[in-house]
Amino acid sequence: MIQLVLSLLVGLVLVVSLYFFARRAKPSAEGSAQQLRKAKQTLDSLQFGLLPNDLVERIFAREDLEYVFSSAPPDVQALFLTDRKNIALGWVRRVRAAVLELMRFHRGHARLHARLSFSTEIRLALNFAGLLTACHLLQIAFYLRGPYAAPGMVRTAAAAAGRVCLISENSLAFLSVKGVDPLESGAARHRA
Amino acid sequence: MKLSINLTDVELAADDLRRRTLSHMAAPLERMIYLGSTRDYNTGLYYHDGLASRFSDEVACEALANCHREAYRQLLGSSIEDLVLQIDSYIRSTHAAPRDFIAAWKSLQPYRVAVPSSTDPLAVEFLCGNVRIALAIWEAHRDDRSRQRPDASPQLLPVR
Fold first, then answer.
1. Class in CATH terms, A32-175
2. pTM for the whole thing?
3. Please, which residues 5-44 of chain B have a Cβ atom closer than 8 Å to chain A?
């Protein structure tokens, strides 16, 4: 009798486990499409919004600091430093959030849609880890010592983010059919 | 085929706009403010009478949008020192009284609505912060010179 109850219990546990595994393995088509779309938007925002070299160089340019400190009154100097600190912190926060979003996407869905090789996945994981650490250190540096605290690390983080973008772009390449971008229409680009 | 013809038309229209209109505006700031003003706030579409009559409404709209984005990118890449010079050049071109201009720009911040659509919010915030700082520096220079010579306006180098 006891053996029968135990067998039934084990069977029940197995059936429940199988049910949950089956549910996890089949994401809804709509949910997947939304996540792919979100990942593509995150990637675009990183590549075209946050990581262009000229923007990064401009935000962290010492040239502006030197000019403001040589020709502006003290209150304007203070305003400038506060502004730049907020922008630098905003930049690193946004890069970190975008990288986390891409990481989540890769962990959960990319393998279902793209054939990533093992070496690519390892490389991606290392890049993600390094980038998140760099972003965290940059945040601390900006908080404590201002926007010009770690120019070398900014360049390193931007380059690592660029590499992550390239790998992610390859795994999402099937979304960008030549001439038809589902995320952007010609008319929408001009709308305010 | 239609797409390539349209793109060529857009490039021609943009070149026409640069040659006839924008060439008279030395500073990207001036160009961005002007091109922003050709956009209808209700529809987000650009309109330019002369350009539309030479090409078409759609081509003119696309050309204006391209030139607007170009001016914005140039402005975003400007150093604060350069921005101070651009503000000086712009104030001179408007013929407005500097005191009124500064007061209006400080309170209304017209440069905020003059940026193209679909631009990254962080980049817009960065640009607006830079314009605000450049404006403050221009004003400080002007006050300094006014104290030295009451009838003087700031003499800055031409816009690069």
1. mainly alpha
2. 0.77
3. 39, 41, 43-44
